[in-house]
Amino acid sequence: MNKGIKLRLIIHNILYDIYVHNKTVDNTYQKNKIGDLDERDRSFINNICLNTMRFYFHSKKILRNLLKKKSSTHQEILLCCSITQILFLDIKDYAVVNSSVELGKKLKLYHGLINAVLIKISNNKEKYKRISIRFTDLPEWFQKKSENLSKKEKINFINNFYKEPDLHLVFKDKRFLSEFEEKLYKTSDKSGFLIKREKVNLIPSYKRGTWWVQDFSSSFPLINIEKSLLSKSNIDLCAAPGGKSFQILSKNKKITLNDKNKARLKILRDNLNRLNYKAEITNYNLNKKNKLKKYDFIILDAPCSSVGTIRKNPEIFFRKQEPNYEDIINTQRLMLENASKILNSDGIILYMVCSFIKSETTDQIDYFLKKNPDFSVRKFFSDTKNDEYTSLIKESYMLTIPTHINGYNIDGYFAVYLKRGK
Q1: Is the link from the previous residue into 323 a cis peptide, with omega within 30 of 0?
Q2: Where does the pLDDT of residue 392 fall: very low under 50, low under 70, confident under 90, or very high at 90 and above?
Q3: Cα of 144 vs its chain's centroid, Å
Q4: pLDDT tens, 157-187?
Q5: What is the DSSP code (8-state) at residue 381?
Q6: Which one of 188, 192, 217, 258 has the lowest number of neighbouring Cβ atoms within 10 Å?
Q7: Rounded to whole angstroms, how far apart are CA atoms 170 and 174?
Q8: CB of 365 closer than 8 Å to CB of 397
Q9: Which 3 state secondary structure label does DSSP give 248?
Q10: Adjacent-strand bridge partners of 400
């Protein structure tokens, strides 16, 4: 088996596990020992896997137009992966067709059909590249959960969800941003988008620890936060990989970094050490009985469906099984309630989720406020005069779908400040 076929077999197995067995990308990469491969092969596998999932609905629509019968799962995954390579990644057609036919034989599929379909697509590239999808082509569970989106928002989502994310960097201070060796599109005096896409760990200042990668939407609620809100007793309850905590530390404020996941805590420690920051790190599960002290400012970036990060995590739509929303909602409610129990009088909880689904965002806050009348929503603070930025603030909270700011892609996110006391 030549190398091209071998790598594509690994890709197929990864995609099959994600689709059928509801696995995460990280799980399947570990299972297939991707870490043992050289960097070029890892990059090849990652690029094809992620983009096959991003363009899954485009590829499925093409197949519906070409095939009379419904494909088996193996055949559909193989063809969608091949279509992505030919149309959206511009990998040499003959390499894709030959490898896919041979892989079809190995998987005991009708390889003659695979060859015919891919040759037809290869001969009509421009026609099939123009394929467009509608909101109704997306998973049914997502359509139901996002019924509150306006027609304009749905069109915006359709036009953006499958695009690669852009890299947004946050700096320890504005001096480090001014000294940065690469070109940036500034989003504040301490943050900006990388104009040229590249591997961040190869940028010299990465090792010097002057900045970290953090999506614009994730950084927005804290980038211009009033320092008066930050006291001596601050905690980030789900801190890993650390971006929001680092924003607090960059303001010369102390914060405790907590996460219940020990593997994620290792990543957090590595990031903290690279940035040469020092902070207390704890390993509590908020939803179990803990002897936690009380805090004045709490960041709760709660577990969620993560649909706001669909560009980074395209497996959310690719999986056959939908997210367990009952479990997600109950977990968020319990965490928010438990966070309120360790909040001092006049303290603030910054509740955040990388989602824009109503049941995870405004519905959660309405439910919490009804149960906790001593809390109120604090006005969302931002000192920016940029209209695109201020458009993310709806009433007293931040809410955005995956969209773009000044041409750069940002995640979908929700954030609200909850204050104890009127």
Answers
A1: no
A2: confident
A3: 21
A4: 999 999 999 999 999 999 999 999 999 999 9
A5: P
A6: 188
A7: 10
A8: yes
A9: helix
A10: 413
